[in-house]
Each structure stands twice: as C-alpha cells, then as structure tokens.
Specification:
Layout: H1 2-5, H2 15-26, H3 42-52, H4 61-93
C-alpha cells in the first residue's frame, strides 16, 4: 500500500482519495489500472473516518499504510462479531 501512495504527493490528497488508493492496493488492483473501488464501497467510509480522527499527514507512507490496514482489520473483526450476535438474537426468538 505504501508503494501505491509514493507516486503521489499523498499528504495533499483528500482522505477519500487516500482511502481509494489504499483499498485498490489491498484488493490487488494497484494504481496502474486506476482505482476500481466504487464510492459505494463501505470500506471507504471506514478508512475516511479513521483518517479524519488522526494526524495522518505527519506520518510516513509506511506508517499510514500500517494504520489503515489495522483500521480495516479492526472494522472487519467488529463486523463479524456484530453478525454473530445478530444471529444469536434471531435464533433466540425462534
């Protein structure tokens, strides 16, 4: 992901653009083929919220990349638990 940010003056990009570039790198699309992440991808909001909550422009590209991956992993983990808890609640009603 940090390689995807390096060709850009990434500190001047919006949180949305950094999030799209990061997700393209995570998904294996890279920047050469454009960012195939759609605006409706819920992960963009997750990463934008994270970036807006920290001083990411003062970090290195590598540090931002690690933080974004961690934020995405945390969100996935929390989403999975939410789904499990919802199933437990629904199963308890039947």
């Amino acid at each position: 992901m940090s390689e995807a940010l390096r060709p850009y003056v990434w500190r001047g990009l919006t949180p949305e653009m950094v999030s799209c570039l990061a997700l393209a790198a995570i998904d294996g699309h890279g920047v050469a083929g454009g960012a195939p992440v759609t605006r409706r991808d819920v992960r963009i909001g997750v990463l934008v919220d994270f970036l807006e909550g920290c001083r990411w422009r003062s970090l290195t590209a590598g540090a931002v990349s690690r933080q974004l991956v961690t934020a995405l992993d945390t969100w996935r983990h929390e989403s999975q638990w939410l789904e499990i808890e919802l199933r437990w609640l629904l199963d308890g009603d039947g």
